[in-house]
Design goal:
The structure is a homodimer of 164-residue chains. With 164 residues, the first copy, chain A, is mainly α. Chain A contains nine helices and no strands. In chain A, helix 1 (4-28) packs parallel to helix 9. The radius of gyration of chain A is 17 Å and the shape is globular.
């Protein structure tokens, strides 16, 4: 049970657990609720949904798994901060993009070997990676799982009475 | 580079990265700021600091690494929700407990082998663990890293102008 495959699976499972928890929460919120600010002066739920979608979408090329599916989201939800004057896609469309992106990732994840997870990601050169082998795809997954958890904690504020 | 030790280290590093980021943020907040609510009607910063401290403290027995250091925090910050009527330890004391707990964990973590990380945690019986070997100490670490990230995202709201 100390096999590399077993340990890698624990990490991938942790991603899926965090994603499942976030999805359960998103499903409990109406589209109208997602249009509200998380807290006074803070991002709206719709912005965080778009932000998470584009960050996950960009994992496809970062992990050498394919092209981004929704390149237009980068500018709206990553380059720029939330701005109620900006025209965003409808929440129902964003929900669809979110699931499409995570589904595309999940389908690739099940086929990946430990060796592939420990391959470099696309934002580091072969040369630098030779010196810093921890900058691999599995580290990206760990980082993005934590990123998703950050915003999950914030999105909880859209739920009345949820204190944690 | 597909050694179990290397992969386990990536997971432990991810804990340390999340902890370092949270500590940088906590250091940037004054004790007075931590007495504020994260958002209207939500937990105060001091509650989240105490909550994180007791959850990390309880990792010591959960991972078979020793006894909890501050058993009195469990009741204040885990069993009960935040309540401004309750007398909490001073923020400066809580900061000390927080660092003591994480330091105790960190000292144990550096000595742990992959085999030890994949051992059962103390909340599962030998029998159940034989059937569910993924319920090990490394899974606890992954879970608690995500838990810390949840609350990090929320604590960011105490910083003026921080949108993410």
């Amino acid at each position: 049970m100390t096999s590399p495959t077993f340990i890698t699976k624990l990490v991938v499972d942790s991603w899926h657990i965090a994603l499942h928890r976030l999805n359960q929460h998103l499903d409990s919120l109406t589209n109208d609720q997602l249009m509200l600010r998380i807290a006074p002066g803070r991002n709206r739920g719709v912005y965080l949904l778009g932000h998470l979608t584009t960050v996950h979408d960009k994992m496809l090329p970062l992990l050498f798994l394919g092209d981004v599916l929704y390149p237009e989201l980068n500018d709206l939800f990553l380059t720029h901060a939330d701005n109620p004057e900006t025209l965003f896609p409808a929440v129902s469309d964003l929900r669809g993009y979110w699931h499409a992106v995570n589904s595309a990732l999940g389908k690739k994840f099940v086929t990946m070997t430990t060796e592939e997870w420990l391959h470099r990601h696309s934002a580091i050169s072969e040369e630098d990676f030779a010196k810093e082998p921890h900058r691999n795809r599995l580290s990206v997954l760990l980082n993005r799982t934590n990123h998703m958890s950050n915003h999950y904690g914030q999105l909880l504020f859209l739920k009345k009475g949820a204190l944690e």
